[in-house]
Amino acid sequence: MPLKVVLRPGEKVIVNGAVLGAGERTVTLFLHNRAAFLRGRDILKETDVVSLETALYFLVQLLYIFPEDAAVNRPRVALALGQLRAERPEAAATLDEVAALVAGGGFYRALKLVRRLFPDARPAEGAPPCPPAPVASLATEEARA
Q1: How many CB atoms neighbour CB 66 within 10 A?
Q2: Following DSSP, what letter does each residue of 48-90 receive, concatenated?
Q3: Which of 5, 35, 42, 65 is the most exposed place for a label (fewest CB within 10 A)?
Q4: Burial, 133: exposed, middle or buried (Cβ in 10 Å; 0-12, 13-18, 19+)?
């Protein structure tokens, strides 16, 4: 049974690395075979990486959408997982599951798990907003390794 995807006007989707967009009308697409598929609302831009959690999500997203770059991105994912484990030891079980999914090619499910780790962007009522957590430079960490 094919996957039915409905795109609203202006909405985008990535299928196997290609960005598809709807024009002025609603579009219905059917995916009849296996494909790396990510809706626009689930896509994280590099400029939106503001925490270790979002950095991990972005890197897993790159593995999912661009498998041809796996040799570069797999070590980055491993590094991000290690940094996040050190920062959030209470999330170790989830991070272990993410690592296992990534190793087995379950990138979409890994993305869903990582998204659950995102810090809550809504501050408590009356509380000042918290600044985003600093993200360690992955390039700097790779150079040290």
Answers
A1: 15
A2: G--SHHHHHHHHHHHHHH-GGGHHHHHHHHHHHHHHHHHH-GG
A3: 35
A4: middle
**H-helix or E-strand spanning residue 141:** helix 138-144
- Percentages (nearest 5) of helix, strand, coil residues in the chain: 50, 15, 35
Q: Are residues 51 and 132 in contact, defined by beta-carbon separation less than 8 angstroms?
A: yes
pLDDT band (50, 70, 90) for residue 120: low
Q: Is 2 helix (H, G, I), strand (E, B) or coil?
A: coil
**What type of residue sits at position 144?**
R
Token pair recorded at residue 3: 């996957």
Is the alpha carbon torsion for 120, 59, 6, 33 positive or negative? negative
A 10 A CB-CB count for 116 gives 10
Quote the pLDDT of residue 72: 94
Mean pLDDT rounded to a whole number for the chain: 83
